[in-house]
Design goal:
- By secondary structure, the chain is an alpha/beta fold.
- It folds into two domains: 124 residues, Rossmann fold (3-Layer(aba) Sandwich); 52 residues, no CATH class.
- The protein is 35% helix and 19% strand.
- The strands form two sheets. Strands 2-1-3-4-5 form a five-stranded parallel β-sheet, with helices on both faces.
- Helix 1 links the parallel strand 1 and strand 2.
- Helix 1 crosses helix 5.
């Protein structure tokens, strides 16, 4: 699968949050192009080439800039699967999920991002929702699927223990228990 990874801002540092997942995706057999918008212009050709796009959002400024870039992606290629990944991916999910992104991944994102792209490559639908990373939250294994079978919302990987209560609260709301 052809994946475009986009970094918008990393405080003037090299975009490690694009380089690391690019390596993981390449190791899994996917083609990857990277775009660092802090030093490069938007590449419309890369967007046309891509079969999926991922936006690195390791901090608030990156998230705000990624939201603007993702809005442009949605206008140009509304069918393109889009993922926000990094520390701030779940922070503005009320503004991004569904409208700008199909998936948001927080915490250790390389395995989840690689799995998402693999799912897309296999013909899956990479929809958004909330799930728990069972490797990092072993006690939460029963909380992995919180959406109803007919929901258009599917998986947002939450890998930090402190986010477990958020996932449980969302599950209760989706089940009509809250």
């Amino acid at each position: 699968m052809r994946v475009l990874l986009v970094s918008t801002y990393e405080l003037g540092h090299q975009p490690l949050h694009v380089a690391s997942p690019a390596a993981a995706l390449r190791k899994a057999g996917h083609e990857v192009r990277c775009l660092d918008l802090s030093v490069e212009r938007w590449d419309a050709g890369a967007l046309e080439w891509a079969q999926a796009a991922g936006f690195s959002v390791p901090m608030h400024t990156a998230m705000r800039l990624a939201m603007r870039a993702a809005a442009g992606v949605r206008r140009a290629r509304p069918e393109l699967p889009v993922c926000f990944y990094g520390l701030y991916a779940p922070v503005s999910r009320d503004l991004t999920c569904g409208a700008l992104a199909d998936r948001a991944i927080a915490g250790e994102y390389e395995p989840a991002l690689t799995a998402w792209v693999g799912e897309l490559a296999a013909g899956g639908l990479g929809f958004l929702g909330v799930a728990i990373d069972p490797r990092l939250n072993l006690a939460a294994a029963g909380d992995a699927e919180i959406s109803s079978p007919d929901a258009s919302v599917r998986t947002l990987v939450i890998s930090a223990r402190e986010d477990l209560e958020i996932a449980r609260s969302v599950r209760r709301v989706l089940r009509g228990e809250a």
